[in-house]
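Consider a protein example.
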Amino acid sequence: MRNRQQWRSFFSGVAVTALVFSLGVPALAATVRTLEATYSGIRITLDGREVDPKDANGAAVEPFAVDGTTYLPVRAVADALGLEVTWDQERQTVALSTPGGQAPVPEESASPYSRTDPVPLGTAHTFRYAKGDDDWTITMQISESLRGDEAWQALKAANQFNDPAPTGKEYVLVRLSAKVDETSDPDQAVAFHLAGFDLYSAASVQYTAFWTVVTPSPKFDGRVYQGGTLDGYLAFLVNQSDPAPKVVFGADYTGAGGAWFSLT
């Protein structure tokens, strides 16, 4: 927390742009501009202590000004503030982080998965759910999926009063885990249950029937606080002719957003 406070106070009075070359990596190639830089012996101090800016190789790097804006070497500033700095070549991004800190989770729109390319079985997917007063980061995974007669036998063994699937339908029984990585309020629990998922066909048509059965133990149903994990079974009823049903968790009433998972 102290590092973040230092960061805000340090930059409150000066406009700073990170110098990519101070990281020892190539500069952006998409746009080339010629700038007139003024070197006038600009010094950097932090809480009254002078900072000696150096690049990744230990060579001195001098701050400069362009059109009234002061440019500082990002590695020197990061080192002075006790921050870690890396260069992401693929994204052309200077990444600053507190030691041992966790990188922020991308927004839902930045997810590599989508309705047309859902999260595969056995893949843990971390995503952010942010709607209204709820702001959660969750890691979810479907580790196992049974379908058809195999799923029905497991459900019948779990409870003898479970009804068989109607004609033309069949069950999909999945083992699912959800870890609550972070919440905006650590005292707020996240509720997980079947009603939180919307079921769709391979053609992205929603299944509207709500069909419940008693699943094997443990059941995926309960509240979880930050740092906790819920693991259990959920059962869905799909068309026998559906080659690749999928579910979405956290979509809004229009069907937008949420995290999509393959059931097969």
